[in-house]
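Hey everyone, long-time lurker, first post.

I ran two proteins through the pipeline my lab uses and got sequence/structure pairs for each. Pasting them in order. The first:
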Amino acid sequence: MEEGKLMSFSNIVTFKSALEKDLEELKQRSEAYSNTIGEKLRTNESSNESDLSDLREKIAEPADPKKKKSVKKKDQKDSWHDMGGVFIYDGIGLRGELEICFKALEDAKSRMEKLQKIKDSVDGLVSRGVKKDLGCTAFLGRDLLLDMAFTKPSSPHTKFAYRSVFKTGIEHPSEIRI
């Protein structure tokens, strides 16, 4: 689901499948970012860079999702420069690349968490009695908050009807002679 785009779905089931597709895509993306970070750290493990030690500590510490460490603004100001909407890392090397990878990984994981909450909320609505055949219009904002309005089903329910054509051959009277 794209942020900042108005989307219409014919029913709740298609909406949920779009959410599940996005969740799976984000999961694959976060795994790819994790693999990239791991490869970069392993290839440069032989070199003793003191500036990578805090990044390695960040990986080694057990991550508690409820407890997030605040990023030091002083370190960000010293190493990143704002050039009119583009932030440029001050230096050439692995550290800037790894910081970007970590930022992308954190973004993918937070987006995955928020989309999972949206999916759970929609599942809760369906379990409370919202009909699955209702259409919906949705808007996913930049802050990953979903606005959703239900619409009439795209195809009205038809009652069961059976139509068929039944043909019989016409009987030809035949004479019986005695």
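...and the second, right after it:
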Amino acid sequence: MQKNTHTVRHFQFDEPLLPIVKDWAKNFGFLVEVQGNTISCEKGMGLMSAPITVILEHMNGDIKFEAFLKTDPISMFTSLFLAPDEMHLDSGDGQLYMERKYGRDKVNKLLEKLGQPIIE
């Protein structure tokens, strides 16, 4: 059985989602792409940070929120090639600890703007 590699949340949100996401993305350097009812946000890798992806699917006020790291070659090397291709942002010991913390710091700002509990 495959481990959960994405942090996933489901919640209700009745305000326009795109302006909030675009404002957050601009402040934190994420690129935004919209396809139908799906908003995808990506931030490329930097020093000691793997690429971060956030996907929001919205349908009549129901939101499915996903956030994860895409393991880049540097992160894979530093984890002795034990890290999965994609990694959730939840806290805890284990692989890519610092990269997950960095990702949580960014993504939690969006969750706060949406009135949701942060990723711990």
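Reply from user beta_strand_b:
Welcome! Quick read of the second one: The chain has one domain: 7-113. The longest helix spans residues 97-113.
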